[in-house]
Design a protein that fits this description.
The protein is mostly beta strands. It has 4 helices and 12 strands, in the order H-H-E-E-E-E-E-E-H-H-E-E-E-E-E-E. A 12-stranded mixed β-sheet has the order 7-8-9-10-11-1-2-3-4-5-6-12.
């Protein structure tokens, strides 16, 4: 469960991308959906640093709520920091430090440039073009906003999920929310709020500071 939640925060839709073009016979994507996703990517690239809040809800196949979590996300260049109940993830551009509050333990790994790991930056930029088929389902009104619903289907059928609904704010060209459908029947909904694309964030915010976590066990896998 914790791995899925972390993955959903990093992409809302998976952990490590299989960067492959669609195989013959797998179908093609909707050009109208691509225009919207390209606009989201272009808008995000204008942001120098980003802060946002988010909520995450989990339901089972019968619609019963299994849990709700809230947290925050900060991004700057190739750095990011994610804070959610019981867990914090720091990426300074070279290393990723994942702190587990319940175990008072931090695991540090080095970023491998040869592995196409999905980061929060890729969530808002180019994740969609090689890993998914996508189509535009149309517009819907939610709390006074017009959201464009895009359905994504993973090309890699070994993924634990079979569909993602991405909701884009039509007025701002930013991602409002995403809903992931697992093959097990569970559904994960990730909603972004208070998105600030002009945030002033010090680089130190992306580095795990052991002095702020007294007694934490460090598992260094670099």
């Amino acid at each position: 469960m914790k791995r899925i939640i972390t993955s959903l925060l990093l992409l809302t839709i998976g952990m490590t991308a299989v960067m492959a073009q669609p195989k013959p016979g797998m179908g093609s994507s909707d050009p109208d959906a691509k225009k919207i996703l390209d606009a989201v990517s272009a808008k995000f690239k204008t942001f120098k640093a980003v802060q946002a809040k988010f909520s995450l809800s989990i339901e089972n196949a019968t619609g019963k709520t299994l849990g709700n979590k809230t947290g925050s996300l900060a991004m700057k260049g190739n750095k990011y920091r994610i804070s959610i109940t019981g867990q914090e993830i720091f990426c300074d551009g070279s290393n990723v430090s994942t702190y587990d509050k319940s175990a008072n333990e931090v695991t540090i790994t080095k970023i491998d440039p040869t592995v196409n790991t999905i980061t929060p930056q890729k969530l808002f930029t180019n994740f969609y073009d090689k890993d998914f088929l996508y189509k535009l389902n149309g517009d819907k009104k939610v709390k006074g906003k017009t959201l464009q619903e895009i359905e994504l289907t993973p090309i890699d059928k070994t993924k634990a999920f079979f569909k993602v609904l991405l909701f884009v704010d039509k007025a701002s060209n930013t991602i409002n929310s995403a809903k992931l459908f697992e093959k097990s029947g569970n559904k994960y909904t990730y909603t972004v709020s208070n998105l600030n694309g002009k945030a002033n964030i010090a680089d130190a915010q992306f580095v795990f500071d052991a002095k702020k976590y007294p007694g934490a066990e460090v598992v260094d896998l670099r």
